[in-house]
Every structure is written in structure tokens, then in C-alpha cells.
Design goal:
3 domains; Arc Repressor Mutant, subunit A; alpha/beta; eight-stranded mixed sheet; Aspartate Aminotransferase, domain 1; 473 residues; Aspartate Aminotransferase, domain 2; globular; four-stranded antiparallel sheet
Length: 473
Amino acid sequence: MISAGILDRESSVPLHEQLAHNLRAAILSGRTGGGEPVPSTRVLAADLGIARGTAVAAYEILAGEGYLVTRAGSVTVVAEVVGSSTGPVQRGSRPSPATTPTLVDLRPGRPHTAGIADAAWRSAWRRAGGVDPASDVDDVRGDPLLRDQIARHLGRTRGLDVVPDEVIVTAGTSDAVLLTLLALTPRNVGRPLRVGIENPGYPRVRRVLHRLGVEAVPFPVRLDDGLDLDAVEARADLDALVVTPHHHYPLGTRLDAAARARLLAWAARTGAVIVEDDYDSEFPHGRAPLPPLHLLDPARVVMIGTLSKVLSPALRSGWIVATGELRDRLVAARADLDPPVSQVQQRALALYLGEGALARHTARRRRDYRHRRRLLLEAFAEIEGVELTATDGGLHAVVLLPAAGAGTEQDVVDRLAEADVRVAPLTSYGVPGALTHLPAGIVFGYAGPSTVVLMDAVQTMIRLLTRRDDPCD
């Protein structure tokens, strides 16, 4: 029987976190072996005199960290990750290669997907697949029930007063950006569409622009003050501007209320369309959210959202929110291209959202990611000359390296790859050929692997970064 330890009901630490800590300690100490079953949450709650929800929350934390393995229709067991007859495993040691993937891929954009296919998920897909498909697509904007659920979801989570007619279902962010660009026309005849982008920024946006022959105009984004609004306001010839105002990708800055007002005033003055990429707003990590740009000026802002960070980018599902003439242009472009998301998937997602399963899943992931973030902040707190940033939201972090050139940055990336840890160089997010103000750094995601594997990779990262010898030797 796994030891639950003693819970201090007078402590300011929530009971579910205390319980998770005690169970984790029992596993790490080797007192509980891999494969050993743990009591059901109902039995554990009764033994400890706590609410069952407290036990469920503790198990969810440990399952997300990789210490427990849950299987449908079977008991939950301790994972085969650490702990053995040789005694406790020291912090920072490498788990057994037999239970740890050779390569730890920490490149950003990968959420933790273990446990998504729970009873609610399987039920939604089973019912969606049990209905005869329609003879054709009735509405190119997407399934009415899913659009209704997305509108309700945005009302609850982002404060948007959206009606289903303003929602268009997409196959993720790339499809949404592509559709939006195809729906726009240059305001000046005789030249291609001219679109502003963030520099650094999401590389796929500039690749989509390049494929379409769109002229991309990069605007600097700095670590200290974010998007250079002076540079934006100096341009009156843009047809659109793509921004990540809630949590810049990858630097983590955001536009405050004053900056948002300036940006929208510029758009109204010049006639430019704002494309708002609201890509990870579900995970603010304690930072008070600001209203979306679309809420402030719905007629001029196209808002893009996705389930990639909450569920998985492999699902290829998201949405566009637009009103008025912009909405009509987007619907016309969608009709020309045909909807890219299957009816079965849309029905399943509508059921999943409508029954509250997505909200419950997001709450579990939010607890998990905040715990991971806290571990990262603690791990990097005392590392001299190395700064961890971009952690106020989302699923990734940026490590700023000591003053050095891009050669050292790439050397760090290469050495980590040799140690079976894959990350991205910060300079890879800059627009090629355009001036950037980026220091040397690396970008890594902390959501994908189990917490055990993540923190082992982080220790590898820290050991490499704190070497006293020249990293280029």
C-alpha cells in the first residue's frame, strides 16, 4: 500500500498538493515499487477523511508528472520510472533508459497528451461516429452545434459576446492564417498584399505569407517593452498586421491596455485589419488576463483560436471569429476551399465541449503546467548568468544565455542534442535578413514529456550551461 503521509489541515498548502507531495516522496524513496497498484480515489479519500475530489486532484498531478499510470478499466499503478532496491534516486539523476525515451523533444508547441482519451473523450467520439454522415456539407462555416459551443466557450473563457454565425471552424492556426490572408485584398491596386508580422515571431506565419506571395513587413519585438508600436504607427500602407497580444511568441511579452488602445487606433486610422492570434490564453499562470483585441474592436479584428495547446496540434482544430464584412469575406473564401475538418470530428468536439469535458481537462492541465513552471523557476533560480523568461503564460520558456554570439547559441543547441535533449535556438524565430534585437538564447517547451523526464532534461541543460570551460572548445 502506498504511503499517503500526514496531511496538515492548518497549512496554507492545499490538501491535494500535500497529498501529491507525500505520494511522490514515497515513490521516489523506493518504498513503493513500479507496477504496484494504488488505492482507488474513493478508498484513499475514506481512509484519510478527505473529499474524493482532493484525492482525484492529487492523482491527476502525479499522472501528469509520470509517477502514476492510469489505464481505462484497470487499476492505477506506480510508473516504472524511479525507485529501486538500490535506494532513493538523487535529484537530477537520469531515469533508466528502459523507461525513458532516448530523445527528449522539448521543442515548443507540444502539450501533454497523456490521459486525454478518458471516458468523456471516448464517449464523445463513439456517439459522433455512430451517426450516419450527411450527404454533403450544409454550412461551410462548420457544424452549427460546434460553432455554438465555441461561442459559449469564448464567452466563458475570454469574455467575448460571440454568436455562432461569427465563428468559422478551421484546421488549426495555419489554416486560419491562410484563410484570412486569402480573404483579404490589397487596398492599393497593382501591388501584392502587404502584411506586418512580429520579429521575432511564429515562423509558420511568415512561411505562409511567402507561399502566397504576400509582402511581409517585420516589426521588432523586444524583451523589455514588446512590440515596437512607434515603428507600426510610422506605417500607413499595411493591409493587415498579425500579432500575439496576449502572450508574444516566443518572448512572452504582452500588450498592456495602453498599447492595445494605440494599436487599435492605428488600425482605425489606416484601415488595416488586425489578425489576433490568441494561441495559449488558457494558461495565464496567475497573470490577470486582458480583454482580447476582438472584444475592443470586433469590426476590425479577426481573432484566431485553436485547441492545439489545450488538447493537441495533431487534432488540427481551431476557429476564426470575425464580424461584418470581414466575416463575409472569410466565409466566401472558405466556400471556395471547402471545409477541412471532418463532420465526425466536429460532432465529437461539440459533445466534448458541451458536456464540460474540455473545461475539466483544461483545469487539470492548468494545475499540471503551473506545477511544472514552479519546478523550472526553482531549478534556474540560482544559476548565475542564465535567465529564465517568458514564463508568465503558455507552455514554453526562454533561457537567455550569458553575453555571447549566435555561434554559442547554436553550440548549446547542438550539445544538448548530443545529450538527447532537443530545443530550439532563439534566433530561429527572427525574420531572415531583418534586424533583430535578440540576445543569445534557447526556447524549450515544458508540457510534452512527463515531469520526471522533463526535469531530468532540465538538469542536463543546467549542467551544460554552468560548465566553466569555454562551450566552444
